Fold:
Amino acid sequence: MAKKQLRIGLIGYGFMGRAHSNAYAQVGHFFPSSYDVVLQAVCGRDAAAAQTFADKWGYKSIETDWKKLIARDDIDVIDIATPNNLHGEQAIAAAKAGKAILCEKPLGLNAPDALKMVEAVEKAKVPNMVWYNYRRCPAVTLAKQIIDSGKLGRVFHYRANFLQDWTISPDLPQGGAGLWRLDAKVSGSGVTGDLLAHCIDTAMWLNGGIKDVTAMTETFIKERKHTLTGKTEKVTIDDACSFMCHFDNGSLGLFESTRYARGHKALYTFEINGENMSLKWDLHDLHRLQIFDYADEGTERGWKSVHVSDGDHPYCGNWWVPGLQLGYEHSFVHQVVEFIKGLESGKGARPNFKDGLACDYVVDAVLASGKKKTWEKVPKPKGWK
Structure:
């Protein structure tokens, strides 16, 4: 029986555009489904660069105007891999055109922006998903399965950090194609929306909603030259952020992120402590889940490292033989797997836009707390669980 085509229209051809394209190219080789993923068109403002990208990844055509891409009747899915300030307008237009939507994180420039996106996809009843890919590392998904089984018992603590060091130099400019993450008008925030958003999404997926937060933020370098204007301008993003929180289940949370941790390129870790078990994970060793089980008896009680690669581990049975680990790129493949499963079941995929809004509510509360030095309550999306 002929498969249904799932024709992708990608907006943006930077780092995330490559990660998404690789996932689309690989998913059908390892995860059979009723869909044939087709790389239909890629959109970018530079026609030559877009064509080079299309030729490399196998897209059939290009566009230089994202509105024209969305209007095409030979595209089923719009994938938004653009800077944060464009997510809202592009997603709302795609929803009105009846397209399924996958959007990079964070969902919106801020929570009000994200709320409009949620309202648009709900009104249009179109499938939607946010690319919070770390959920789909097999070891993280295994942690979710263990937590959902109730084996941890009552949860007391959740802590996470995401550390980088690439913005330490005061000579690094802000803004433009490569450095828009340092421009608050384009990114919305600094490390909170860029890095801690990953930690927040994973935390709420594993441990439930966040009730309130108190935060400390800092901008270490106050002025940088702007790439587009050539002028030295005030830096308004957060270079570092630490916050504490209460989860809805009564546990305590501790989060930290910075781009000023010399020696760290992408250190993302989390740990969750329950009355019976503790789990921890490290992106630098992403195929392993560290487990402490208090039920283990005698002199052999202690932390154990589970190599998540066996056929009965999440996603692993579709890849290689046990013992051969998966990497960062596979998390994006697994996101596409979940999106396709959502289409097949009609139930949709997670994390969806409402999950993205829930994360943006936390980000906004953290930023507000950092400015006001107060505890801030965190709203929840209507009907969100």
